[in-house]
Specification:
Elements lengths: L3 H37 L2 E3 L5 E3 L6 H4 L3 H6 L2 H45 L1
Antiparallel strand pairs: 1-2
Helix pairs in contact: 1-4
Length: 120
């Protein structure tokens, strides 16, 4: 059984790939949580951050005397967080899927080999 060390290394590499994918997905999830906090939490505006504003999701700031609130809406920061999270999520999904498929294929091949040896 000379292929056993190769099979063990292949499975370890598949698990590492799966781990990297899971890590990237977790980091993208943290970025999405941060985006939600920035989008839905109230924030402060004004020269010394003295004016309390509703969340960026709310449009009531536009209708009140909230010109400072409207000017302080930092949409590029929100879009940057979202823009950074999407590639991480895509790459994490691809890595996790690739690692899972590789590991399942190694298990399948080992089972087929075992069944072939048992029937021979």
């Amino acid at each position: 059984m000379r292929s056993l060390p190769y099979d063990i290394e292949f499975r370890a590499r598949a698990r590492r790939t799966q781990g990297w994918g899971l890590g990237l997905l977790a980091f993208a999830g943290l970025l999405w949580i941060w985006l939600a906090v920035l989008l839905f939490a109230p924030y402060e505006a004004g020269e010394y951050r003295t004016k309390e504003c509703l969340s960026r999701w709310s449009s009531e700031n536009l209708h009140r005397d909230g010109s400072a609130c409207v000017e302080e809406r930092d949409w590029p920061e929100l879009l940057a967080v979202l823009g950074a999270s999407v590639p991480l999520a895509v790459v994490g999904s691809v890595l996790y899927t690739s690692g899972s498929v590789s590991h399942r294929m190694a298990e399948h091949l080992a089972e087929v080999t075992r069944l072939n040896e048992a029937s021979a």
